[in-house]
UniProtKB/TrEMBL annotation:
Lineage: Bacteria, Bacillati, Cyanobacteriota, Cyanophyceae, Oscillatoriophycideae
Protein name: EAL domain-containing protein
Coiled coil: none
Residues of the full protein shown: 567 to 855 of 855
Domain of life per record: Bacteria
Domain EAL: 24-286
């Protein structure tokens, strides 16, 4: 009897497990196929969207963050929050990440040739931890820049705070090697990881991105307002500039501007846009060449 019960329980457990494993495998297979066709140049499922990063002082677009989008063959949108971790675990992120990087650099080059902007537009691209750990990352990036004819200083790489803090010394060494190509760096989602403030000044990064969670609560709790203010002040002391993520209202923007936060990003300005829509936005803001 106990055995029968045990078996029944085992089967209930295994059905749930099985569904999970199957859908996870399905996702992995779909993603693998989507990446393969993207690389072949018929990228129907995968695309890169661009969200403007706006100067809070001038209101002008300073650059864009590249954000990958996936609409699978059934037409369903799958969030990067869901598939990036799968891409990480399977190693697919290396090919995917390189494709995103190349697409983004190519698009930026087109914009730079199409619009005169002073200072020049920059593109921010998220790097996953596997990508960052690649031994030949520097050569790969150098090759892409050369192929496209993009200046290194136009490209900014975003690494998360937790990635940066994992192995501080080797992270710093790697950043320095990439900065020899004139690339810029941001620390993404700042405030959500476990930064030791004593390490922060050692990171040769240009920008801190205040995590959206603080920005969205900064008008509700005095603690969050204080955290945002402290991050902005600290960044400036360390010679970095600041991007506030997830600005959704005019009053958040105004408060951040008063705190002398340099840049903002969020639905208040624009959602991430496909390339054509981002181009249309740019042409409203600037003069064509
Ligand atoms: P992230 O790098 O911090 O990107 C910002 C996320 O916040 C994006 O979500 C963006 O659409 C969203 N966002 C921007 N403004 C607002 C706002 O005002 N309100 C709200 N509610 N959300 C806003 P998304 O595109 O879903 O990406 C989520 C995360 O997935 C990213 O966080 C990043 O960690 C990862 N990710 C996205 N694209 C890529 C990529 O191309 N490569 C890698 N490695 N990771 C990526
Ligand atoms: Mg980012
Ligand atoms: Mg972020
Ligand atoms: Mg974030």
């Amino acid at each position: 009897r106990a055995k029968a019960l045990g078996k029944a329980r085992y089967e209930v457990f295994s059905v749930g497990m099985r569904t999970q494993v199957v859908s996870r495998l399905q996702l992995e297979n779909d993603l693998r196929r989507a990446i393969a066709s993207a690389i072949e140049g018929n990228s129907q499922e995968l695309s890169v969207h661009y969200q403007p990063i706006v100067s809070l002082e001038t209101g002008k677009i300073a650059g864009f963050e590249a954000l990958v989008r996936w609409q699978n063959s059934q037409g369903k949108f799958i969030s990067p929050v869901e598939f990036i971790p799968v891409a990480e675990e399977t190693g697919l992120i290396v090919t995917l990440g390189e494709w995103i990087l190349e697409q983004s650099c190519r698009q930026l080059r087109i914009w730079q040739q199409q619009f005169t902007m002073q200072p020049e537009l920059t593109i921010s691209v998220n790097l996953s931890s596997q990508q960052f750990a690649q031994p030949d990352l520097i050569e790969r990036i150098e090759q892409i820049l050369k192929k496209i004819g993009l200046n290194g200083h136009s490209l900014k790489l975003e690494i998360t705070e937790s990635m940066a803090m994992k192995d501080v010394d080797s992270t710093i060494a790697k950043i320095l090697r990439l900065k020899a190509l004139n690339l810029k760096f941001s620390i993404d989602d700042f405030g959500t990881g476990y930064s030791s403030l004593s390490y922060l000044h050692r990171f040769p990064v240009d920008t801190l991105k205040v995590d959206r969670s603080f920005v969205s609560r900064m008008e509700e709790t005095t603690e969050d307002a204080a955290i945002v203010q402290t991050i902005v002040m600290l960044s400036h002391i360390l010679g970095m500039d600041v991007i506030a993520e997830g600005i959704e209202t005019a009053s958040q923007m105004e408060k951040l501007r008063i705190l002398q936060c340099e840049y903002g990003q969020g639905y208040f300005f624009s959602k991430p846009l496909h390339a054509e829509a981002a181009t249309a936005l740019l042409s409203q803001y600037t003069n064509s060449v």
